[in-house]
């Protein structure tokens, strides 16, 4: 099974974070990947889950939040969605 590391934002209602979170849920349903997530620095440090929560159901929020990071170099594939764009 391929190890997929998704890098981005989660727990927020920003458009990039929402796309990221919906993709995480879809990828988890596929069951084809060992799925991991790395939180990237927020573009705006004032954003937070209390004021800008994503609004997912408890089971979906728990799945999203429960995805662990993966040490650098151990992923077969890295997918990043955040801003600013990083090379």
Description:
This protein has helices spanning 15-30, 58-65; strands spanning 2-8, 33-39, 77-81. It is an alpha/beta fold and 87 residues long. A three-stranded parallel sheet has the order 2-1-3, with helices on one face. Helix 1 (15-30) links the parallel strand 1 and strand 2. The chain is globular, with a radius of gyration of 13 Å. The termini are far apart.
Draw up the topology in text.
Elements: E1 2-8, H1 15-30, E2 33-39, H2 58-65, E3 77-81
Parallel strand pairs: 1-2, 1-3
Q: How many helices?
A: 2
Q: Alpha-carbon distance between the termini?
A: 26 Å
* Strands, total number: 3
Shape: globular
Structural class, please? alpha/beta
What fraction, in percent, of the residue positions are helical? 25-40%
Question: Strand-and-helix sequence, N→C?
Answer: EHEHE
Keywords:
three-stranded parallel beta sheet, 87 residues, 28% helix, alpha/beta, 3 strands, globular
Can I get a quick summary?
With 87 residues, the protein is α/β, with parallel strands linked by helices. The protein is 28% helix and 22% strand. It has 2 helices and 3 strands; from the N terminus they run E-H-E-H-E.
């Amino acid at each position: 099974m391929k190890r997929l590391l998704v890098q981005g934002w989660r727990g927020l209602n920003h458009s990039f974070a929402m796309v990221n979170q919906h993709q995480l849920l879809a990828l988890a349903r596929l069951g084809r990947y060992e799925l991991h997530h790395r939180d990237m620095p927020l573009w705006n440090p004032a954003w937070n889950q209390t004021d800008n929560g994503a609004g997912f159901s408890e089971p979906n929020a728990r799945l999203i939040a429960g995805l662990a990071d993966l040490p650098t170099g151990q992923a077969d594939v890295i997918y990043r969605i955040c801003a600013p764009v990083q090379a």
